[in-house]
C-alpha cells in the first residue's frame, strides 16, 4: 500500500517532470532563442517551488518521528539550498 504522503510527493514530481517536458517542446516549437530563454526563466521559478512543496509534505509526514533538533537541521539544509539557488 502506498502511503498518501509518498503518493502526493510523487505526484508533485510527476507534475514537475511534465512541466519540464512541455517547456522543452515549447522551446522547440518557438524555435527562437529569446522565447526559449523566456520559457527557461519560467522553469527556474517552478523548480524551487516544487522542491519546497515536496519537502514540506515529506517533513509533515515525518514530524512525529523527528526530534526538534533533527527538524531544525533539515530546515537549515533546505534554507541553504534556497540561498544557493536565489543568490546570483
Name the overall outline. Answer: flat
* Rounded average pLDDT: 88
Largest sheet: none
The secondary-structure element order is HHH
What is the tally of helical segments? 3
What portion of residues belong to β-strands?
under 5%
What portion of residues is helical? over 70%
Count of individual domains? 1
Total DSSP E strands: 0
Low-confidence stretches: none
Radius of gyration: 16 Å
Overview of this structure, please?
With 88 residues, this protein is mainly alpha-helical. The protein has one domain. The chain is built from three helices and no strands. The chain is flat. The N and C termini lie far apart (43 Å). The mean pLDDT is 88. It holds the Pfam family DUF2619. Keywords: Membrane, Transmembrane, Transmembrane helix. The chain crosses the membrane at residues 6-28, 37-62, 68-86.
How do you describe this structure in short?
By secondary structure, the chain is mainly alpha-helical. The chain has helices at 4-30, 33-62, 68-86.
Describe the protein's topology.
Elements: H1 4-30, H2 33-62, H3 68-86
Helix pairs in contact: 1-2, 2-3
Amino acid at each position: 500500500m502506498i502511503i498518501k504522503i509518498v503518493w502526493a510527493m510523487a505526484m508533485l514530481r510527476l507534475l514537475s517532470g511534465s512541466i519540464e517536458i512541455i517547456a522543452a517542446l515549447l522551446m522547440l516549437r518557438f524555435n527562437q532563442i529569446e522565447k526559449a530563454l523566456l520559457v527557461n526563466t519560467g522553469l527556474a521559478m517552478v523548480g524551487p517551488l516544487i522542491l519546497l512543496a515536496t519537502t514540506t509534505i515529506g517533513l509533515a509526514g515525518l514530524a512525529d518521528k523527528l526530534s526538534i533538533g533533527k527538524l531544525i537541521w533539515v530546515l537549515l539544509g533546505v534554507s541553504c539550498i534556497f540561498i544557493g539557488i536565489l543568490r546570483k
